[in-house]
Structure formats: structure tokens, C-alpha cells
Amino acid sequence: MENKSTLLEVKDLCMYFSVAKGIFSKKSYVKAVDRVSFKINKGETLGLVGESGCGKTTTGRTILKLYEPTSGQIIFDGEDITKKSQKSMLPLRKRMQMIFQDPYASLNPRMTVGDIIGEAIDIHGIMKGNERTERIRYLLNKVGLNGDHINRYAHEFSGGQRQRIGIARALAVEPDFIVCDEPISALDVSIQAQIINMLEELQDEFGLTYLFIAHDLSMVKHISDQIGVMYLGRLVEKGPSDDVYLNPKHPYTQALLSSVPIPDPDESKLTKRIVLEGDIPSPIDPPPGCRFKGRCRFAKPVCSEIDPELKEVEPGHFVACHLFK
Known about the structure:
This protein has ten helices and twelve strands. The chain is globular. The two termini are 30 Å apart.
């Protein structure tokens, strides 16, 4: 079996945002990302899933240094980039790109498609003139659009087409690593599969490495080699895609999977949905112990006292839960 080298390693990553309550109040922090660790091998995809507000997008943006991390380490291709300034990050921007969630808000309505895709090419001074134009036409064809669309504006395209433009923009500087921040959540179901298949084809052709952020576990399983499940800023489970999908260990992962629609009516009747009850704790100074304990049907006294660490319960399969010792 071929050993793949690690492209990205995140160690105990924390991203806290300060919250001002008043002049005389003690400063509080929203712990959006709290001690998250994982690795992604070159040419592979880590799918990051969880409810809205769990810290998935913040994790992706912090890795790209769009936010300055509070603590922890970000190691990209063997280099620690955690403390790098924005100026010194510029050469690495060519290698690390992002596909944004909203294809309507992420494209400048005043710029043509050619200028949107070509902006990064211009910033990095990669090519000019006819060579630049041909590169943009090539990228448009690569993502399933027409090279003649180069002079059109974003409002002239559908949502799916706009997301393809966003993907072409991310590919413009020939990156190694792309954060896909819920790239299909704003699209029709019929278009979602097309975008996923295209991302897989581009990954094979260009040797891309993805951090794929999404809500839909079935889509994440389709594209991911590894899956990480986040809850309130913490990684509660991670492992090979099939292991996490077919044999989920953490009660939260089990609940997420039980909510995935099953197209077969007969099989759907046999599947019992796990309904989570209780309130989600505040991410501002969360209570001690396990953050999921208030909604967990297996909660024990120890869950209120000790915050469980991520432990390997099967080869490559990690869970943060007191049910597993």
C-alpha cells in the first residue's frame, strides 16, 4: 500500500473571538474552534461536518490565515505557518485557495467573469496578455462553462454556473490545497451531484487536496477519504469515511446519520431517527465536561465533570466520548 505524505497538519487549533459585554465586565470569548487536530494527506479529502455554528467554516478560514489563530499550530507541507504575517503568506496563497459557500455573494457584480478569475493571476503576476486570456478560457471550459463567457457578468448566470466560476477562480493559480466551504449547500439538489463529480475529476487531474465542509453527510461520504465531525468547536469523531458512515461511534454522529434521508421507502421505515433534545450550550465559556452531555441519551455523571479527549478506539478511528475508554 502506498504511503501518502501529509500536506496539512493542524495541532490543537484554537480560534477565540472576544465578546465585549460592558466597560466593567470581564472579557468573554466565543470559542469557535477549540483544540482541533487533524491531518490531510496529499491528494485526499477530509470532510468536515456538523450543525450550523459548530465551527467548520471558522476552522477552514483559520487554516488559510484569514483569521489569526488564538493558539495551536498550522503546518502546511512541512512548514509551520501559524505565526506568518499576511505579507509573508502571499507566496503561499498560490498554493492555498478557497471556494466560498454563497455563489451570489462571493462574486463581485461589477467585474466580468474574466476579471474575477484573472484577479489572482494578476496579483501573483503569473501571466499577462493573451496568455492570461487563454488561461481564463481554459479554466472556464474545465469547469463546464463556455470560454466565450469571459466578458459576461455574474448576474447573467445561474447559481450552479456561478459556483463553477468560483471553482475556476480557485484553480486560477494552480493551488495544491482548497478549502471547499459548503460549496453545494446553496444549490439545487440536481446541481449538487454535478459539482461534486466535477470536484472529484479536478482532484484526480490536478492532484488537489481538499478540506470539504458540509452539512450533508451522504455527500461528504461520497467525496471524502476521511470524515471529521464537529460539535460546538470541538472535533468529536474522525476516521476513514466508510468507518464513520457505516459504524459511527459518537452519539452525535449517530444522530446526524439517522437524519440522512433514505430513498428506499421500505428501508426508511426500518430506520429509527434519533431526535436530539435539550439545548445547545453557549459557545461563550461553555460548561465543564462534555459539551454534548445535555443532548446525549447516554450521558453519565462523569460527562459533567471531565471533557473527553479524542481517543483511538479502532485503527484510524478516533472518538471523544466517555462511552469508550
